[in-house]
Design brief:
about 300 residues, Spore Coat Polysaccharide Biosynthesis Protein SpsA, Chain A, about 15% strand, Nucleotide-diphossugar_trans, Glyco_trans_2-like
Length: about 300
Amino acid sequence: MNISVIIPVYNAEAFLEQAVNSALIFEEVKEILLIEDCSSDNSLRICHNLIKRDSRIKLYQHPDKLNHGAGASRNLGIEKATSEFIAFLDSDDYYLPNRFDAEKSIFKDPNIDGVFGGLGVEYLSEKGKSEFEEKFKNTTLTTVKYHAEGKEIFRGLLNLTSEFFGTFFHLNTLTIKKSAIHKSCLKFNTELRVHQDSDFITKLSYYCYLKSGIIDRAIAIRGVHDNNRITKIKMYSTEYNSKQLLLWRSLYIWSKNIHLNADEKKYLLLQYKAFELSTQKGLQKYINLASVVVKYPQILKTRYRFTYTKR
């Protein structure tokens, strides 16, 4: 195997070296692409120091040297990657020594496009731990509930399998053939500053033949600290509902131009409508809700609380 690891870098001076070192230990990793995204701390200087240490480490910035977000940075990484396989790593996270163990056997099957596994947690501050536990409760392993492959993964991510598959798997644990990404013409949605990874994974599971790898234990670690963006957004807050609306709108618009089963199309429509309602206010919100319920009564069974917003 030969793997390109893509690391978007933004204000990661405290964590970047550990992330890079965790990828360097693998002989399969032929290059590490640091995509520096106009950091305001010392991240760029650290990037320059790192590329002097190992020829596998390469540094790129956006042509205008401005900040474009993680999605655009990953797109640039995919464009620059030269290896057969691509893996992703957030700059404040790191790989474990078993990161690519499953890939070595699973990719012997030429029909497999991608493999994913479980993501663990390391608490780097008490404040970060408190915020993470408040939002994600006792979720110390981000994973799926059972082994699956192919279309069952796509349907599982939409909660349409007979048993609960799991909410999602993390991008840090995905290894994907570069050719599969190009064949699907898939890119990260740069309009999503949050949840662009969930958007990408959902679409990828439709276009590509994915298979679960090591899902009962971690193959990478999420570093939880004071500045994790995802934990700052409180569940069902105005900001949370607005970010979710952007995600489900992206998936809904995408779904209109591809072939999906009726229940898959309906699920994406209902999630989009639910969060669209969640961002509305006053009497007009309930008038619109009544209209939607008449047409789509199943919206009352969506797992999101669209009928109110926490301030």
